[in-house]
Write a structure and sequence with these properties.
The protein starts with a strand and ends in a 6-residue tail after the last helix. By secondary structure, the protein is of the alpha/beta class. The protein has helices at residues 11-22, 38-48, 62-69, 86-91, 93-114, 147-165, 199-207, 235-248, 268-279, 303-309, 317-330, and strands at residues 2-6, 26-31, 54-56, 76-79, 118-124, 170-176, 178-180, 214-217, 229-230, 232-234, 254-260, 266-267, 285-288. Strand 2, helix 2 (38-48) and strand 3 (54-56) form a beta-alpha-beta unit. The protein has a domain at 2-181 and 232-261: 3-Layer(aba) Sandwich (Rossmann fold), CATH 3.40.50.720. The structure holds uridine-diphosphate-N-acetylglucosamine. The site of uridine-diphosphate-N-acetylglucosamine has 21 residues, from helix 6, helix 7 and strand 8.
Length: 336
Amino acid sequence: MKVLVTGGAGYIGSHTTLTLLEAGHEVMVFDNLTNSSVESLRRVGELSGKKIPFYRGDLLDETAIDSVCAEGGIDAVIHFAGLKAVGESVANPLKYYRNNVAGTLNLLGSMERAGIRQLVFSSSATVYGASERVPLSEQTPLDATNPYGRTKEQIEVILSDLCHSDPQWAITALRYFNPAGAHSSGRIGEDPQGVPNNLVPFVAQVAVGRHEKVLIHGSDYPTPDGTGVRDYIHVMDLADGHLAALQHMQDRTGMFRWNLGTGFGSSVLEVIDAFSAAAGKRIAFDYGPRRPGDAAISYSDVSAAQLGLGWAAKRNLAQMCEDHWRWQKSNPTGYN
Ligand code: UD1
C-alpha cells in the first residue's frame, strides 16, 4: 500500500514509518518539523534502505495538504501530527484546538477530495481521564481532563460522525498508553524538546547526566509502593499496532477504537529500577508532591485488541529500558 504518514518525523511516527517500510509498504511523510527532525527520517531511510518522500508542511495550510493528497495513489493515511504537551494545552487551549482539531479537519477535507477513505488516528489513553476503574477498556467512558486530551476526544467524535455520514470510510483510533523505548539499533528514538514532562525520557536524561535526579510526583498513592502506576508500551509494539490496524481495515469499513497497551502496570520506582539496571548505574531520585491531574493507576484491558485486531505487545519493561538507553547513550543530545 501507499501510506501517507502525517507527523512521520516524530517519535512514534518515525518508528511506525520504519515498520511500514519493512513490511513492504510505500511511505510518504508530511511533517512541519515543530517537534521533530528530518534527521530521524534520514536514519529511517538508512535503516530500511528505502527512500521516503518528505513534504515539509503544516496541516493548518490547507493547500499544502491538499496538494500532497491530490498527488494520487495514496491508499491510507496514518495521522500522528499534533501537539501533545498537557501543561502547554492548559495555558494555551486555542493553540491546541486549532492545531489538533482544525488541522485534522483540513486533513479529512483533503482526503475526501482525493478519494482517500482509510485513516489510522493517533489517539491516547488520556481520553479516559482520571478514571481508576482499571483495567481501562475501550468501553470506559471518555472524560479527558485537559485541553490536549479533549482534542483527542473531540477528534474521535468527528471521525465517528464522518464514518456514519459516509459508509466508504474505514477509520481506526488507537489509544496509546505510555510509549517508551526505541528501535533496537539505537539510531532512532525519542528526542523531546526542552525538559521532558514524561517519566521515561526524563529518567533517560538523568542517566546520561543532563539532570541530577528524578522528582517522583507523589509517594502516597494507593499503590503497592505509593508511586503512580502506568502501562508502559514499547514504541516498536505501538508501530506494529499501526500495521495491524491498517491490515484490519482492508476488508472493513466503519469506525474502530483499540487500546494499545500491555495490560501490565509498573510503578515509578519500578521504572527507575529497570532503567538503572539497563544503564548499569544508580539513578538518583527525590520524592515530591503529587502532580495535579495524575491518576494513581492506569493500565489497559488488552482483550479487545487481541481478539479484534489480532495484535498484542511483545516487549517488556526491561527491553524498553535497554532500547531507550541504547538510543540515549549514543545520542545524548538527541538528533542534534
Ligand atoms: C502523561 C499525560 C497524558 C499523555 C501521556 C503520554 C499528564 C497529566 N498526562 O501521562 O495526557 O497522554 O503523558 O504522553 O501529564 N512522573 C514522575 N516524575 C516525572 C514524570 C512523571 O514521578 O518527572 C510520574 C507521573 O506522576 C506518573 C508516571 O510517572 O505516575 C508517568 O508519567 P508520564 O510519563 O508523564 O505519563 P502520564 O502521567 O501517564
